[in-house]
Design a protein that fits this description.
Length: 76
């Protein structure tokens, strides 16, 4: 997430755990950008932004900490 608009390049960005709890964060911006990126990648397979949004409707938001931290056996 962008943590400092006055900085350039990678200095502007920090992963969420590195940002202060009181930092401003616009989840809808990142959601829209993620959907747009997914549509760019999946577009040749017939996936549009609208189709991706339709698939995501009703899904629950998860925190990264809710995913298993173990490395999959194929990736060790």
């Amino acid at each position: 997430m962008v943590s400092d608009d006055d900085k350039n390049g990678l200095d502007r960005v920090q992963i969420a755990p590195e940002v202060d709890d009181g930092a401003a964060y616009d989840p809808s911006y990142y959601r829209n950008e993620t959907i747009r990126a997914a549509a760019s990648i999946l577009g040749p397979l017939g996936w549009t932004e609208e189709r991706i949004v339709d698939e995501l409707m009703g899904q629950q938001d998860l925190k990264i900490s809710e995913f298993p931290s173990e490395t999959h056996h194929c990736c060790k």
